[in-house]
Amino acid sequence: MSLRIAVIVGSLRKGAFSRAIALALKELAPPQLELNIIETGDLPLYNPDLDEATPLAPWQRFREEVAQMDAVLFVTPEYNRSVPASLKNALDVGSRPYGHSVWSKKPCAIVSVSPGGMGGFGANHHLRQSLVFLDMPVMQQPEAYIGHVNDALDAEGKVKQDNMRSFLKTIIDSFADWTERTRPQ
Ligand code: FNR
Fold first, then answer.
1. How far is residue 128's CA from residue 131's CA, in Å, rounded to a whole number?
2. What pLDDT, in 10s, does the model give residues 71-81?
3. Is 100 in the pocket of ligand 1 (CB under 6 A)?
4. Beta strand 33-37 with 71-77: parallel, antiparallel or unpaired?
5. Using a 6 Å cutoff on CB, does residue 124 contact ligand 1?
6. Which of 80, 126, 127 to mutate to test the pocket of ligand 1 (most atoms within 8 A of CB)?
7. Residue owning the nearest CA to atom 21 of ligand 1
8. Is 147 helix (H, G, I), strand (E, B) or coil?
9. Helix, strand, coil in percent for the chain, rounding step 5
10. CA–CA separation, 124 vs 74, rounded Å?
11. Residue 181: in which H helix or E strand, if any?
């Protein structure tokens, strides 16, 4: 059984550590998972006034791409102890129009990253708060707060530490299991 996973990266930066970790997770994923990064950088800030008869094309594109997926993997840095605005905006866009959220019931997991020592704990848990409201079963364990992420990557953004590779493998294998157990049948 193939499971399609939407990967939402919380950074818009070209050389983002979070994107590098997302790509490493894609490489390490077991064969039944197909990871697809869904871009968020072109989404205008959500405004319900612009979401009436004809929604903006980037919002429509984003909603359609997420809707086709079985589950969602968030890989994000922390901005000011919370979620980057682009990620929160993507959540808001996908959650509307009211009653038509593309997030509802999709299993999900969060991997937070930081060059600092706390591994994006604040972003990880603020994101969890929104995901509870969005009715997404969030993987509880193992938790993934990746501190000193820059030390784990080489100049090309590839994982250079064996212990990090094996941690990421544990995360993505656990997420495959979580998705199989909790996705709507
Ligand atoms: C940061 N950074 C940061 N790091 C952290 O651990 N906790 C924080 O609260 C913040 N706050 C913050 C705010 C803003 C506006 C920026 C631009 C950055 C640093 C951040 O972790 C670092 O820039 C990472 O490299 C961002 O992740 P990507 O873009 O490499 O994925």
1. 5
2. 999 999 999 99
3. no
4. unpaired
5. no
6. 80
7. 114
8. coil
9. 40, 15, 40
10. 9
11. helix 162-182
**In order of start, what are the domains of the chain with their CATH numbers?**
3-182 (3.40.50.360)
Q: Is the pLDDT of residue 156 over 80?
A: yes
pTM beyond 0.90: yes
Kindly compute the dihedral angle of the four CA atoms of residues 18, 43, 179, 109, in this order, to the nearest 10 degrees. 40
| Token pair recorded at residue 111 | 């991997």
Q: Is 1 exposed, middle or buried (0-12, 13-18, 19+ CB in 10 A)?
A: exposed
Digit-coded pLDDT (tens) for 46-82: 999 999 989 999 999 999 999 999 999 999 999 999 9
Whose CA is closest to 34, among 5, 7, 9? 5
Query: 178 with 139: CB under 8 angstroms?
Result: yes
Distance in angstroms (rounded) separating the CA atoms of residues 63 and 94: 6
Q: Is 12 helix (H, G, I), strand (E, B) or coil?
A: coil
> What is the CA(79)–ligand 1 centre distance, in A?
5
